[in-house]
Amino acid sequence: MGDPAMTEPTLAQLMGYPANARLLIVHADDVGMCVPFNEATEQAMNMGTVTCGSVMTPCPGFEDAVRRFARRPEFDLGVHLTLTSEWRTYRWGPLTADESPGLVDAEGFFHRRQKAVWANATPQEAEREFRAQIDRAMAHGFKPTHLDNHMGTVTRLPFLEVYFKVAADYRIPPLVARSIPVYPAPPEGLDMARRYGFPILDSVAPVPYFGPVITQWWRMARILKRLPPGVSQMVVHLAPNMRSIRHIVRWHPIGPRAVKDFQIVTSPRFKRLLERLDIRLIGWREVMEFYRNGGAAL
Question: N or C: which end of the chain has fewer CB within 10 A?
Answer without folding.
Answer: C
